[in-house]
Design goal:
With 391 residues, the chain is mainly beta. The protein contains six helices and 28 strands. The strands form seven sheets. The protein has a four-stranded antiparallel β-sheet with strand order 1-28-27-26, with no helix packed on it. A four-stranded antiparallel β-sheet has the order 2-3-4-5, with no helix packed on it. Strands 6-7-8-9 form a four-stranded antiparallel β-sheet, with no helix packed on it. InterPro entries: WD40/YVTN_repeat-like_dom_sf, WD40_repeat_dom_sf, WD40_rpt.
Amino acid sequence: MSETESAAAPPPSPTTAAATERKPRRLRGHKKGAVTCCVASSARPGVVASAGEDGCICWFDLRTQDVLFTIEAANKPISSICFKPGNEDFVYASAGNEIFSFDVRMGPQSKPLQTYNYNRDEINQIAVSSKGFLAAADDSGDVKIVNTIQKCLYKRLREAHTSICSSVQFIPWRPWTAITGGLDSKLSAWDFSRGRTLFSIDYGSPELQNGSSSGSAGQCFNPAFVHSIAVPEEGILGGLYKVCAVARGDGAVDVVDLEYELAPAKSKGPRAATSTMSSKRTELGDGSSNQSQVKRIHLDYTMGGHTAAVSCVAFSAFGEKGKFLVSGGNDASVKIWDWSRGFSSETNSNAELVLDIDVKKKVNWLCTTTTDSDNLIVCDTSKVVKVYNFP
């Protein structure tokens, strides 16, 4: 980050200063290198799996001090892991251009049940849908959709992005829809059964750059690459919101109303076809709910947000599920946002940064879980997994 960017950031608030004193619990199990990703079990509260540059998957139970077991999954760094929805006895991991599936009940003796190598380039993220489809986003910009039941390639989303495709997620309440993000600064939704895009938002477009507060305040020296996408389970916060969160390379986090973007163009009026913004106050919210219809909100450093690229985002599993949005960045900080306050026109209030944690190192990935206490799991550039209690 340049000196100009550092100077533009506001001084920390008392809440931020207090938060920096938090000391994490450290989970040790990886042999070397950084921990690249983690996933929390919903079927087994308090159970977390992490993967790293050592090619290993470590299995932790937060009620104990030590790693339960380690699976030597690959001879190269693991870039992404995820559980099989509805049956978390099975976990998927990507390494290089391959994807492996494991039965975790076999413990450290677990060997790959299946190997998929349809991607031609290095895979950045994988996701599995409730229907058994596996999506893999890679450096070529392509996304491969694999039918894990029939064990065959189902669809190629060719040239999904003009640069690296960094992230992919399925939309739980739309089983034939996936959403992708890339280093071409685009967020795209797909009907993957037909291999066609449903909408695309270009965060690098002049309209969106000029409309965001960071674009005019000196922060946006870094492109608005899409580094990570989070899609919550259906029915968070009483089913009121069907959204996704976007981690951006310019330090901002956006929350997008997916149902609005996916609605037929005629129901949204003449602006729908471009998916761009004419005014921050109408199309792209600034965390405020003063608009009559907020379709996107924008959380940046003017609200206490990140001062460098945001690497990952996740909706909270603790408290009221999905109430909080957690983001981690290259500024070695983790932010927890009460995001829905700014998304609803009924609250007449702003989205709020409720906690800022200095984790000392760049954040690679994070997830949340609930046990006897509410936990935030952070993977950074070290070989240990850090656990913070919330609040």
